[in-house]
């Protein structure tokens, strides 16, 4: 069974009630179900990890490096200065997609640069929770291009 790592950083555990005008009303459970629906057609499963602590996210990346076919990563504010998360993702060999619910480039200037984005296979931002579905479809596409 192939597994996709769904990694969500600080403050994403309270989606649905956290600033819904920016982040929408879908909960993290809703997003997990949507990603599972997308990858389930290929027989893949989702392993979801959310933490407000960068070290726990780093540990999850290392733990799942050899057991997953790819990852969807919403680092939250760790995109700005999450250097240890960035270093962990640098050693994560399967493809992964960075996702942001809001369009970070339409927001405050400090959100305009991600320290992890240059390592990602792609970045999706500003499409709300639908961005996670697109990231899942992107991983399916990338996996289909990999030699068997």
From TrEMBL:
<comment type="similarity">
    <text>Belongs to the type-II 3-dehydroquinase family.</text>
</comment>
<comment type="subunit">
    <text>Homododecamer.</text>
</comment>
<feature type="binding site">
    <location>
        <begin position="101"/>
        <end position="102"/>
    </location>
    <ligand>
        <name>substrate</name>
    </ligand>
</feature>
<dbReference type="InterPro" id="IPR036441">
    <property type="entry name" value="DHquinase_II_sf"/>
</dbReference>
<feature type="binding site">
    <location>
        <position position="74"/>
    </location>
    <ligand>
        <name>substrate</name>
    </ligand>
</feature>
<feature type="site" description="Transition state stabilizer">
    <location>
        <position position="18"/>
    </location>
</feature>
<dbReference type="Pfam" id="PF01220">
    <property type="entry name" value="DHquinase_II"/>
</dbReference>
<keyword id="KW-0456">Lyase</keyword>
<dbReference type="InterPro" id="IPR018509">
    <property type="entry name" value="DHquinase_II_CS"/>
</dbReference>
<keyword id="KW-0057">Aromatic amino acid biosynthesis</keyword>
<comment type="pathway">
    <text>Metabolic intermediate biosynthesis; chorismate biosynthesis; chorismate from D-erythrose 4-phosphate and phosphoenolpyruvate: step 3/7.</text>
</comment>
<feature type="active site" description="Proton donor">
    <location>
        <position position="100"/>
    </location>
</feature>
<comment type="function">
    <text>Catalyzes a trans-dehydration via an enolate intermediate.</text>
</comment>
<feature type="active site" description="Proton acceptor">
    <location>
        <position position="23"/>
    </location>
</feature>
<protein>
    <recommendedName>
        <fullName>3-dehydroquinate dehydratase</fullName>
        <ecNumber>4.2.1.10</ecNumber>
    </recommendedName>
</protein>
<feature type="binding site">
    <location>
        <position position="111"/>
    </location>
    <ligand>
        <name>substrate</name>
    </ligand>
</feature>
<dbReference type="InterPro" id="IPR001874">
    <property type="entry name" value="DHquinase_II"/>
</dbReference>
<keyword id="KW-0028">Amino-acid biosynthesis</keyword>
<dbReference type="GO" id="GO:0003855">
    <property type="term" value="F:3-dehydroquinate dehydratase activity"/>
</dbReference>
<feature type="binding site">
    <location>
        <position position="87"/>
    </location>
    <ligand>
        <name>substrate</name>
    </ligand>
</feature>
